[in-house]
Amino acid sequence: MVMLVPELTFLTGLSSLQKSSWTVKEVMWEMVQSPRQHYTRLTGLLRRIRDTPEASQELERWGLHLDMDIHRTQGHILPAERINLRYRSFFPDEELSWHREATKEVPISVIPINSWLLVYPKRLQQLAKDLVAAVRSTCGAMGMKVGLPMMQELWDDRIESYVKSIRSGLGSQEKVQLLLCIIPRNRDDLYGAIKKLCCVQAPVPSQVINAQSLMGHPGKIRSVVQKVLLQINCKLGGQLWGVDIPL
């Protein structure tokens, strides 16, 4: 049993009101930093404590002493792994990212998408058309073949409307490979209802996209579509990349 003292605890994470794109970017910038940046900031903090009389006196009162340098120890640097795509192998950059290569090269195996259903509310009609256009123009470079979807437009964004439309769309086609839903904003209840329907009641691979992530400059929707296509290929049984695992 873990017993927490209320006065010494505090909530973590962000509330729904704070989850604006700018707030999330700021938090991620603080969290995702290189070892060199962490070292610089920690040594800067140590200097500030040393140069602040109140902080130094408080440490002395407790009988504590902070070394001005971070403890050093020997470490082992593992060699970089080679990433294998279908026609090319490469080593990732220092940031261990290979998104650029993955979206401009052909994956190890791809699943053609001939029958898919796109569900969206009426007020996002133009966004849905832009999404289909971006999918069609982007998939070729990634070695994927994506046909035109069957599009179902909703009068509103109520949960019942999505569920009824999805049931109708899945029932009207012999074999739907993929369901793609555009929702107007980040809603856990709507997302949960769609996933429950597609995972339990009428099993079909599904992808839910928040409309806000597609809005902005044209390059943004292309970037989102590239990531979504990679996810979809995996959900349909495709393989994006691999590494060498010797015997």
From TrEMBL:
PROSITE patterns: PIWI. Pfam families: Piwi. It comes from the Eukaryota. Signal peptide: none annotated. Residues 178-247 form the Piwi domain. SUPFAM superfamilies: Ribonuclease H-like. One of its GO terms (molecular function) is nucleic acid binding. PANTHER family: EUKARYOTIC TRANSLATION INITIATION FACTOR 2C. This is PIWL2 protein. It comes from Sclerurus mexicanus (tawny-throated leaftosser).
